[in-house]
Each structure stands twice: as C-alpha cells, then as structure tokens.
Specification:
heterodimer, A: mainly beta, seven-stranded mixed sheet, 54% strand, B: mainly beta, six-stranded mixed sheet, five-stranded antiparallel sheet, 11 strands, 0% helix, globular
Chain lengths: 114, 109
C-alpha cells in the first residue's frame, strides 16, 4: 500500500547531539516537504524538494538541512540540537492521485531536546 | 502574499451537534484540500475539493472558487471528530502549499 513513513515517531535527545529524521514514501511522488509544527498550531514549511538533487529552503528559517539522493527518501538532519528545536516535524509528498493533485502526510516525529 | 483565514479558530460542540467550518482565500483556489489532525498529530486527508461539493459519510465540503472560500460541514458530531481541521491550497505557479491557521474542535460526550 502506498504510504509515507517517518522514523523515529518520538525522540528525546540532549543538547548538542546530531540527529537525522527519516522520511520515506512509496507514493511514487517526486515532490516532498518538511513542515515544523507546535502542537495544534499552524504548519511552517522548512524545506521542500521537487526531485532528486533538488532541495530548497522553505518559508520558515531552519537550522536543519535536507538531502534528496533517491526519489523516495528525504531525510532531515540537525547538526547540533537545541531546546528551541523541540517541535513536531511532519514529512509530506504531493502528486497526482487519479484525477486529483494532493498532498499526503506521514505520521510525524515529535522531537524533544533537553 | 496569499492569505488563508479559517473560522472559527476554536469550537466546542456537544456530541450529536452539527457545525460548519470556513476557509477564505485571498487569491484564486487551485488544489484546495481539507485535513483533520488527530490527537496523535497525524494529518488525515478529508477532501480534495478545488470546486463543487463532495460528501463522505457525516462530512461534506463545498468550494466556491469564484468567491474564494470553502466550507466543511460536520453533521452528528462524535468525540472522535475532535482535533484540528486545516484547509490548504497549492500556491499558483509553484508546488508549495499554504495552510490556514486551523479550527480546533472539541466534541464533548
């Protein structure tokens, strides 16, 4: 079944650690996105990619980086985690689904930096 | 830039009540979607509705593209409907999306 996967689902980590949040999709989409969201609040786009070797920064400045070496994989890395990075990170992809063009989301990663 | 306003921002209902959520856009509507964010944080696709009306069980949605708004109707609400409802649209000429600020719904038993 076509889906979007994110790991880990929950992560508690100390300040200064390097972390990578994984995102994979089997939707066959070429567009992928990372959003940052505080609980119940609006979504902020931090990175997006229109295809392999294509990445752009989003509307909200972020200290994270991304890579897109394979179509289905779009990991996000924080070189040195800080308490201000505590948030939920949502990965998404978009593409045609029949007659519609839709965006779909993974389950999210809840990151806490102590 | 394009603005998306959602109303009401917060809503508390008794189980069984009906409600209407609204989304207003400052620019043309392209690929409007409605999402429900459940208590675990996942966004679930409800409707892809750039125009017209669709129904799925107790939920239905209507988009009037010429007037740049969309409505989500929830009938006979249940506690499992609680969460945050977002509308979103693809920004013209891009594959980026803009989201509304959400309607936080709580349904009481």
């Amino acid at each position: 079944e076509a889906d979007i996967y994110q790991t880990p689902r929950y992560l508690v980590i100390g300040t200064g650690k390097k972390i990578t949040l994984e995102c994979s999709q089997t939707m066959g989409h070429d567009k992928m996105y990372w959003y940052q969201q505080d609980p119940g609040m609006e979504l902020h786009l931090i990175h997006y990619s229109y295809g392999v070797n294509s990445t752009e920064k989003g509307d909200l400045s972020s200290e994270s980086t991304v890579s897109r070496i394979r179509t289905e994989h779009f990991p996000l890395t924080l070189e040195s985690a800080r308490p201000s990075h505590t948030s939920q990170y949502l990965c998404a992809s978009s593409g045609f689904s029949g007659m519609s063009y839709e965006q779909y989301f993974g389950p999210g990663t809840r990151l806490t930096v102590t | 830039g394009i603005q998306v306003e959602q109303s009401p921002p917060d809503l508390i209902l008794q189980e069984g009540a009906n409600s209407t959520l609204r989304c207003n856009f400052s620019d043309s509507v392209n690929n409007l979607q409605w999402f429900h964010q459940n208590p675990w944080g996942q966004l679930i696709n409800l409707f892809y509705i750039p125009s017209g009306t669709k129904q799925n069980g107790r939920l239905s949605a209507t988009t009037v593209a010429t007037e740049r708004y969309s409505l989500l109707y929830i009938s006979s609400s249940q506690t499992t409907d609680s969460g945050v409802y977002f509308c979103a649209d693809r920004i013209s000429g891009t594959y980026k999306y803009i989201f509304g600020t959400g309607t936080r719904l709580k349904v009481l038993a």
